[in-house]
Automatic annotation (TrEMBL):
Pfam family, one: GFO_IDH_MocA_C3
Domain GFO/IDH/MocA-like oxidoreductase, chain residue ranges per copy: 141-272
Name the record gives this protein: Gfo/Idh/MocA family oxidoreductase
Gene3D superfamilies, sorted: Dihydrodipicolinate Reductase, domain 2, NAD(P)-binding Rossmann-like Domain
Domain Gfo/Idh/MocA-like oxidoreductase N-terminal: 4-132
Entry's Gene Ontology molecular function annotations: nucleotide binding
Highest taxon of source: Bacteria
Record field: transmembrane: none
Organism: Serratia proteamaculans
Length: 373
């Protein structure tokens, strides 16, 4: 039987809600049955109608939805939160308190204090909160992680991760661009570039390397005059094992569309993954020729081959990454955390918000090193 899914956010004109709905249907594990899709009731009603939902299960607000669905015999099993960042914590809290598991878009919430409160709510509720860091579910990102943890690179020496976009190189927030509008408002976004794409870069580096920075020094910049939050982020990182790292995230880097790239360097070799070429993982052993591992090839570790959804040579990436997250959510809800141990959850979310908070404090203090322990 399919799991019953609800959604908060994702109404007409929203990008990420449609992505979540496609991902949830990819393995036929979920049925969308309820939603509070927009604060605009007409938008919510039209969205529910277009998705062929029971009109009685389209709600005016998330609190009404949480209470009503918790009271139904056939209420939702899990809710997907696809709202602007400032609503993540209150929406998640409402559903967790109603005994409903949560799938939440990143970042976890608006600030570190909220993250700690939300972690306590998760603990008290006994329910699960899963973050959709979809890039960590790409087949070759999983392959990169396997090879690092198997020791193929030797001792990790440094990590380079960047996430470069150009879409905010002009002040789109002054136009009718809805996405640029809320992302440029501190009260709705919480953090700027560092929260929007910097968290993806941070999580990718952590996921593949298995390392968390011990201390960071950051510079957050708003290059567009009048912009209230950062659009470019540069972070130096120190790790407990002596390794060093560098993270650069920008939404004003002209010439880059969605340039998420990770390089990990060790004593015996290095690897490189680029999200815009998601079917390739480059391995560069010390004193040996570089070679490329392709998705769905016999060169992958056996445990990662099953992640491929289409045969080798076919493009696979963003949507399938989300689909893998939803596939693993279904496994975890049915069989427990051990069924999907690599899913990012509340701990990843809190660590990500701690990173954002430390970066903001470091930048405000002129790049002062901030201890993350």
């Amino acid at each position: 039987m399919r799991l019953r899914l609800g959604m908060v956010g994702g109404g007409e004109g929203a990008f990420i809600g449609a992505v979540h709905r496609l991902a949830a249907r990819m393995d036929n594990e979920f049925e969308l049955v309820a939603g509070a899709f927009s604060a605009d009731w007409e938008n919510c009603r039209r969205t529910g109608e277009r998705l062929h939902l029971d009109p009685q299960r389209c709600y005016h607000d998330f609190n009404q939805m949480a209470q009503a669905e918790a009271a139904r015999e056939n209420g939702i099993d899990v809710v997907a939160i696809v709202t602007p960042n400032y609503l993540h914590a209150p929406v998640a809290t409402a559903f967790l308190n109603a005994g409903i598991d949560v799938i939440c878009d990143k970042p976890l919430c608006n600030n570190y204090a909220e993250a700690l409160q939300l972690a306590e709510t998760v603990r008290r509720s006994g329910k699960q909160l899963i973050l959709t860091h979809n890039y960590s579910a790409y087949p070759l990102v999983r392959e990169a992680r396997s090879r690092v943890l198997a020791g193929e690179l030797g001792a990790i020496r440094f990590i380079e991760v960047e996430y470069l976009q150009e879409w905010l190189a002009q002040p789109l927030e002054l136009t009718d661009n809805k996405q640029a509008g809320w992302r440029s408002q501190p009260e709705k976004a919480g953090a700027g570039c560092i929260g929007d794409v910097g968290t993806h870069a941070w999580q990718l580096a952590h996921f593949v390397s298995g390392l968390l920075p011990q201390a960071i020094s950051a510079e957050l910049t708003a290059f567009i005059p009048g912009r209230q939050i950062d659009d470019d982020v540069r972070v130096q990182m120190r790790y407990a094992n002596g390794a060093r790292g560098r993270l650069w995230a920008s939404q004003v880097a002209c010439g880059h569309e969605n340039g998420l790239r990770l390089r990990v360097y060790g004593s015996d070799g290095s690897l490189e993954f680029c999200q815009e070429q998601p079917n390739q993982l480059w391995m560069r052993p010390r004193d040996a020729p570089a070679y490329c591992i392709t998705r769905a090839s016999s060169f992958q570790y056996v445990e990662n081959r099953s992640l491929a959804r289409v045969p080798a040579g076919h493009p696979e990436g963003y949507l399938e990454g989300f689909g893998q997250i939803y596939r693993e959510v279904a496994a975890r809800l049915r069989d427990g955390p051990q069924a999907a141990p690599l899913l990012p959850g509340i701990d990843t979310g809190v660590q990500g918000m701690a990173f954002i908070d430390a970066a903001q404090r470091s930048s405000a203090a002129g790049g002062q090193w901030i201890d993350l322990n």
